[in-house]
Amino acid sequence: MGFQEYMPGFRPVVLGIAALALAGCATFSEDGGMNTVSALTTERTGQSIQLAKPGHDTELAEKNVHQLLGKPLTPDTAVQIALLNNKGLQASFAELGIVEADLVAAGWMRNPGFSFGRMRTGNDVEIDRSIMFDLLGLLTIPIRSGIEQRRFEQAKLQAASQAVRLAADTRKAYFNAVAAQQTVQYMGQVGTAAEASAELARRMAQVGNFSKLDQAREQAFYADATAQIARARHNATAAREQLSRLMGVWGDKTAFQLPDRLPDLPKAPDTINDAESQAMQQRLDIQMARRGAESTAQALGLSKASRFINVLDVGYASKSETGAPRGNGYEIALELPIFDWSGAKVAKAEAIYMQSVHRTADIAIRARSEVRESWSAYRTAYDLARHYRDEVVPLRKKISDEMLLRYNGMLASVFELLADARTQIGSVNAAIETQRDYWLAETDLQAAINGSGSGGSSSTQMRTPASGEAAQEH
Amino acid sequence: MVSRRDFFTGAAAMVGAGLVSRVGAASLPEAPMMDKAATQPPLAPPNGRPYNPVVTLNGWSLPWRMNNGVKEFHLVAEPVVREIAPGMKANLWGYNGQSPGPTIEVVEGDRVRIFVTNKLPEHTSVHWHGQRLPNGMDGVTGLTQPFIPSGKTFVYEFVAKRPGTFMYHPHGDEMVQMAMGMMGFWVTHPKDPGFMKVDRDFVFLLNNFDIEPGSYTPKIATMLEFNLFGFNSRVFPGIDPMVVRQNDRVRIRIGNLTMTNHPIHLHGHEFQVTGTDGGWTNPASRWPEVTTDVAVGQMRAVEFDATDLGDWAFHCHKSHHTMNAMGHGVPTMIGVDHRGVVEKINKLVPDYMVMGERGMGDMVQMEMPIPDNTLPMMGGQGPFGSVEMGGMFTVLKVRKDQKRGDYADPGWYKHPAGTVAYEWKGATPAPARNRSPGGKLMEPTKKPANVELNVRNPSGHDSHH
Ligand SMILES: [Cu+2]
């Protein structure tokens, strides 16, 4: 539908009251809803957001991104860049504008229309002139405005939810990228150990001290290690590209630097009291569901009160997925009270209302469960990472030290020493994985409390970190 | 090597046991204990029939008590901590504070009563290896006697009928108890002290242990892969020398309680085997030897005149038995060029050093840290450098001025001028080599590829790391 200028000069008496009732709310807001979205996002991610409007602000945002990319990224700067630069997020901010435009338009009456028809049958010419006036539109202005207002509120929550989700995804991609890069470095060391073994074996065979069998075994280790290095390198590239996509960078900007190491584990794990009730307050999907239920309640009230206005097919409860446009809308039908079917309509409205109430309850129950699960994942990941750091890696180191003593005493061979070095490196790598998993779990926990959760439970399942020889295939 | 001071601590080292309550066993003789692993001076008999006492290498002889003409000994079977060599101790089982237990010396015809107190965590018994005795005194649990339960004392009594060289060891859970070091020497001296009299009479048992580097307790289930071979639960360089005076008549009695035979070899002198488990050999049947194989469960007495001055090696001739713990799965690195590889390994293992490229002697030279409670595979500093030995190795020291009955270490032999091997300083023309492949009995049906092995010069070791 096209929106045109409101024409104050055309004021039929019948509709005057309805038109007057609308006069106050039919204007665009200063910020297009962005302030609310930004506040919601900042509260949850510590980062503000901006809408890239055509013409202005783009230069400043570019400059910001450029500056942030100049230094090795931190989880926060990566998130900041994504919030400034991710085109998908900007698209969802644009959606906000569309919805607000709908809201403004809902407060306006449609222009009267004029039609002219000319039909000729044989020698008869029939000229049909008419002036059309959108009576229904005028009658439903208050209802439409109310609905659009709530849609606008929903859209703001939706945009914030998307921003928070993007922040979480970016943090996770960041940790994955740093860890994958570290893995490449350690796999390189495994490769060096295997290469030294293979080379030594070759020379031993050359002077007659090693059989072809023994030499082939050492060479096989090296060949495996080479394959693993190739995989690790690709994994690092893939992880980095995922981060690039989320940060919305391309061209020169993909040359961003990552630090050599993951951030250290915090000294103690966070203690979060009443995480579940916090989630009930904070989670954006719950807020959206609650608003949706409220809207349905109002529609139900309207249906009951008027009995002639059908506002049932409201799409508030519609699901939205990142990247896909939201299916959201409504339909209003005004009926003439010749036959009284309104009892059935009220019953349907009630059912729809109950549906939205249950849906809200369902979301809340899932959210609570998700919080408990991500809390467990978080604590386990922390304990595991600390266990690897404080127990597994030092023990492996001790084993390597003892192996060296045995090598010194000619109780063990250089090949055993090198095989042990490979295993030790594998355990360091496994420790890095647990450290990465901690940061991923920490992000998921925050998302479960503040955002809209991470979705399925598969994301929080504990991986078995690769340790030792058969190690590094993620 | 044992110092002069260590040697004379014998009397002080022997301490009263107090292990057996005097109230509960008023008639039990005292069980003397030993807390030193050094060779103790011979025990001159204070009473009873006279005899010429033996010297137990890195051991001691058990004092007795005369009780109405019966020689009473008291052995206490118990867990002990034995110093295998300075720098390594082992959790063993033994008798009266040491493994092996003290040597028991008696005289032909003596009536002997031996109290055996079991302080082990499990039952035991003592078998008097080689003795003629009543069947019920033979010490085989189940067969000739009930086992001695933990905490109980049993009494063995018999007449030492046959003079000669004997051993004692458990005959109940024997495999475990012998692997843990339960054994001792027994000498029955002839009634006539002048019979086959010698000036010095050394005794010791051969034994083997499998003690994992870095650990303390032998692995009792080992059958072949022992890593420590010793004389009286000591390994070189922790073994005392056998010190004699020039022209002394010397007897060395060896008992084998290991799992394999040991060709025992003496440098610089020939000897004759004068005694076996069965008694003294017929002089007409003796022939000269420099090595005698002592099979499992056997005893040999060898005799010779120590005519030649010097420090003479005395050892088992199985070369692995003159090594301490070593890795049997270690590949041979001789002749392998390590250039370029070392740097790579050092990146991962910074303290790694190349060894074995020229042989294993490197290992002795480098003196790198090795696991706790582990002896180097070989070592022992002699006057000219490392002896590069371990295990069953000691030195016979023949000295002109050694006093009669003096077993103290006189230090290294001072060689007269011109009697030590020396470096040739003249020209060294290339040796003429025989290139002929040698004879063959039959033609192979399938010709192998022509492999040519050339004499290889050792690589320039010092040039690249
Ligand atoms: Cu041997």
UniProtKB/TrEMBL annotation, chain B:
Pfam families: Cu-oxidase_2, Cu-oxidase_3
PANTHER family: FI03373P-RELATED, MULTI-COPPER OXIDASE
GO cellular component, one term: periplasmic space
Compartments reported by the entry: Periplasm
PROSITE patterns per record: MULTICOPPER_OXIDASE2 (PS00080), TAT (PS51318)
Broad class of the protein's primary localization: periplasm
Protein name: Copper oxidase
Gene3D superfamilies (alphabetical): Cupredoxins - blue copper proteins (2.60.40.420)
SUPFAM superfamilies for this protein: Cupredoxins
This protein's UniProt keywords: Copper, Metal-binding, Oxidoreductase
Record has Oxidoreductase as a keyword: yes
Any one GO molecular function term: oxidoreductase activity
Keyword rRNA-binding: no
Annotated Plastocyanin-like domain residues: 84-191, 223-330
CDD domains assigned: CuRO_1_2dMco_1 (cd13860), CuRO_D2_2dMcoN_like (cd04202)
